[in-house]
């Protein structure tokens, strides 16, 4: 017997002698059939179709063409009508997923690179060298243009020139430069401080000079954090000055409403504008659908 009725213990030798095909052996649990590869492809296609209104209407606008520089590809994409999404990535695998999902642009954000590479917050702890190294790995992995977060340029105007040239050599299509003091703070936090108007404009001019010296066409994205640090009027003045200095794309961080976004879009007509849309940005996530025709040419999603 399997159980000794006197001691109420199992008879291990009897238990081991039971063949595997014995009725006492429990049958395997029933397997629930999963979706077939065809169903998965149809689901993926439906998901991409649902995103279609966000993308550039021209399918050929995506990707870097043979003989085309990454910056030239980015400029071509921004020249097409509509809004262009640029999801953030922090490594080569993430960038490949962005590309595979069909997005036309990828953005290497300092916030996520600092978190993934250092395990530290976005408070100016990550260095120029670490960002350039990460950017090179990302651009080598994808065939879509990548914009790199250049933070505050990692120093003065001379540092900014070195940063721009390093990003060019790393294969980045664009670089975003902001006007925060050092050490900088994350764009989603309060209490940020900015450098003076004169120094901020000087930094953008230094970036333009570095581009000319490198015979490059890298896209300069000029960002101001003065909306939160000072006022909306100050932010509008700065982006106009950045455009006059030669910036290719303008960005005001921490705009608080659609009305403020409209005021931003009215500055420097014809110059692409950038919007940072995340659950922390304070802007409605359907902003692109609302204002596709108002010069918001691409948006970064965190």
UniProtKB/TrEMBL annotation:
Name recorded for this polypeptide: Isocitrate lyase
Xref: CDD domains: ICL_PEPM (cd00377)
Organism: Aegilops tauschii subsp. strangulata
TM ranges: none
InterPro entries from the UniProt entry: ICL/PEPM, Pyrv/PenolPyrv_kinase-like_dom, Pyrv_kinase-like_dom_sf
Any one GO molecular-function label of the UniProt entry: catalytic activity
């Amino acid at each position: 017997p399997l159980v000794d009725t006197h001691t109420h213990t199992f008879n291990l030798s009897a238990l081991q002698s039971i063949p595997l095909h014995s009725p006492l052996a429990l049958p395997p649990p029933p397997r629930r059939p999963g979706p077939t590869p065809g169903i998965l492809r149809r689901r993926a296609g439906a998901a991409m179709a649902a995103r279609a209104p966000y993308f550039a209407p021209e399918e050929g606008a995506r990707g870097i063409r043979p003989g085309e520089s990454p910056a030239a590809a980015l400029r071509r994409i921004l020249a097409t009508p509509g809004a262009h999404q640029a999801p953030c990535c922090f490594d080569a695998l993430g960038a490949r997923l962005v590309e595979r999902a069909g997005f036309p642009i990828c953005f290497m954000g300092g916030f996520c690179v600092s978190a993934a590479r250092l395990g530290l917050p976005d408070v100016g702890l990550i260095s120029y060298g670490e960002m350039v190294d990460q950017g090179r790995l990302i651009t080598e992995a994808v065939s879509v243009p990548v914009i790199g977060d250049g933070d505050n340029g990692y120093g003065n105007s001379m540092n900014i020139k070195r940063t721009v040239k390093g990003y060019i050599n790393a294969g980045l299509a664009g670089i975003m430069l902001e006007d925060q003091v050092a050490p900088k703070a994350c764009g989603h936090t309060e209490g940020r401080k900015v450098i003076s108007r004169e120094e901020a404009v000087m930094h953008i001019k230094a970036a333009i000079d570095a581009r000319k010296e490198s015979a490059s066409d890298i896209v300069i994205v000029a960002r101001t954090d003065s909306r939160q640090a000072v006022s909306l009027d100050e932010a509008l003045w700065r982006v106009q000055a950045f455009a006059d200095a030669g910036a290719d794309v303008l960005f005001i961080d921490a705009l608080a409403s659609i009305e403020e976004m409209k005021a931003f879009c009215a500055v420097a007509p014809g110059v692409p504008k950038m919007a940072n849309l995340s659950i922390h940005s304070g802007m409605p996530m359907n902003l692109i659908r609302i204002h596709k025709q108002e010069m918001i040419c691409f948006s970064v999603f965190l």
